[in-house]
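User: My advisor, Dr. K., asked me to get a structural model of this assembly before our group meeting. I'm new to this, so sorry if the format is off. These are the inputs:
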Amino acid sequence: MPGLDTSLSIGVQSLLAQEGALQITNNNIANANTPGYSREIVDFEQVGPNGTGGGALGNGVVLQGYQSIRDELLQLRIGQQTSDQGSANAQLNSLSQVQPAFIPSTIDVGTQMSNFFASVSALSTNPSDSTARQAVLSAGQNLATSFHTTAGSLTRQQTSLDSQVQQDVSQVNNLSSQIAAVSRQIAQAKGTGQNTGTLQDQQDQLVLSLSKLTDVSVTHTESGDTVTTGNGTALVSGGQSLQLKTTTGSNGFQHVLDSNGNDVTTSIKGGDLGGSIQTRDQTIAGLLTNLDTLASQFAGAINTAQSKGFDLNGAPGQPLFTVPGVVAGSAAGITMSATSPNAVAASSDGTAGSNGNLVNLLGVQTANLPAGQNPTNAYAAIVFQVGTAAADAQANSTATSASLLQLTNQRNAVSGVSVDEESTNLIRYQQAYEAAARVITTVQTLIGVTLAMGTAAAA
Amino acid sequence: MRVTTLVNDVLSGVQQSEQSLQIALEQLSSGKRVNQPSDDPSASAEMVQNLSQSANVDQYTKNVSSLLSETQTADSSLYSVVTLLTQAITVGTQGANGALTTANKQALATQVQAILGNVVSQANSSYRGSYLFGGTASSAAPYTAAVGAPSGYQYNGNSNVNTVQIGDSLSTPTNIPGNQIFSQPGSDVLAALSGLVSALQTGTTPQIVAATAAITTASTYVGQERVALGNISSQLTSQESYLSQETLTLATQQNSLVGIDVSIAATNLSEAEISHSAVLTAAAKVLPNTLLDYLK
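Assistant: The format is fine. Below is the predicted structure of the whole assembly, which you can bring to the meeting.
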């Protein structure tokens, strides 16, 4: 039944609903710049008539609450791209620091190798000259030093990546604990029928932070959310965080263990952690192996050439360089063992004036080492390797940034707050509020008129 | 699509144009397109090979110029020897005159003896501390006086020849062993001179004539050896000009591998500047406008 009383209560309900809508709008505006915030939309519902039949009228509006607008699939893809970007950036950062050692300068291995051969060639024009002999010795020492410097810059980078791995693992553990806590709250809130939008935003944001560190995937289940790394190592399960551990492996670097103690180092991909491990164990390790091989085989070839000739005193040529017995560590360990300029085995006939054996020493420059390339080309291949790795990382970083921008724009299209839109809503709810207030004033006037009906005639 | 904010696009645009600006600036100021291996990995690798080749060519050039002075020194020694031998032939021809007294011949013999001493001193000439005509045994004087030797001198050197690389696949001999020039059997310079000395001292006129003829043979022979030295010298000279051409070629290659034309770099920079200011202008226009500006 229609009535002024009903109108009054519809008016009050409407005021309350518009107030609630204003608050939601206000909350959206307040969080316009909050990372990971999903916009909330007002959930108005009309109240149906009490009775049935032609005379039954609507009973106004009720504010059911709000709805967080989110797209789980987009969120997932943003997570994946974020972890790809994290990995690319980790690789780019460390390779950019490694690269300068391979830029042609006065001290890079390539230049020093050329200098060494040039000094041998210079000696061939005057094989008994002690200045020219000393020059060969100095060039050899400089070459050994530049092998040390280059190997040093690679191992320093490995060491710094190694401590990065440790930090990343502890951050992963920290984030997975937080995610576990939030996921317990979500399960609880769902149980009591509360809105989980805010908690969901919080969890998405934590997962995104985790994605920066490693590739993760999230599975939503009734019993709580499960977070696993790309290779299936569980980080959060059933509201519990499963902590990773690090331990020093046989290669002297930190290895990552899952909560059961299994070594998962090689299977961790993506994110800063994955990128750091890949750069440490593959990219830089590969460069070091090639540099070690070059140093070891170069020293071997020079020493073999030495042994074919005679030194200034006519004694059989002794090794010029000393390298460790194993290839690993040769670049860092190569030293000039000869101390006297007389040691250069220039002579092929035992006389001081012969330069016949220098052709063997010079031949090392153009002969293929056991690894298949001559020393110059082997070094050029290492430079190519460094350049390609850094350029790939750069390209990946740029590509993921571009795709991340697109995905973020798509996410914003769905979940982002538009201040213009909210301003419009503000006006809309303000007008509705004013109208509802006007209804109440009108009803009040009408009730006044009704109450005055008896006295109106008398007056 | 529902657009909520342009901030991200603006930020990314500004960052990109700033990056291009940085690259253009670096290229212009360094004059290089490739400043680190990642800028162009294969050009960087080729650069390593090119630099190594350039260092070799530089060294070949230095070798050539050092060898040129060495062969010039050797050549001037041989020239002196030929001159001395010509003098000896003149003296021998004088000595063959049957009218000469023994005292006259003795005087001539003394002259030839002096010539012999001069020839030996030329044979012992050195360059940068090494004897030129001792084969590879270049640290001791090649010829020293020896009692009992037919010429009165013995050869202390060997017959070995040093070669020096002056191109990737080009080597040149750097010396002619002394025994090949001064004491070659059949045209032994020193023996011929000492033969003339003894012929003048004690021999008959026909013996003096024969000894003089032996010196003529030896002189012709030394002349031939000088030609061989001259060949080395001219090979060095032609290699020198080839190497300077090669240096130029390598420098040009380097430039095309990692360098950038200044005008291109400058154009790139101004393009980057224009696009950067376009991005900033657009950002300034787009960002401040909201509905709130129009609500009063």
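One thing worth pointing out at the meeting: The first helix of chain A runs from residue 4 to 30.

User: Perfect, thanks a lot.
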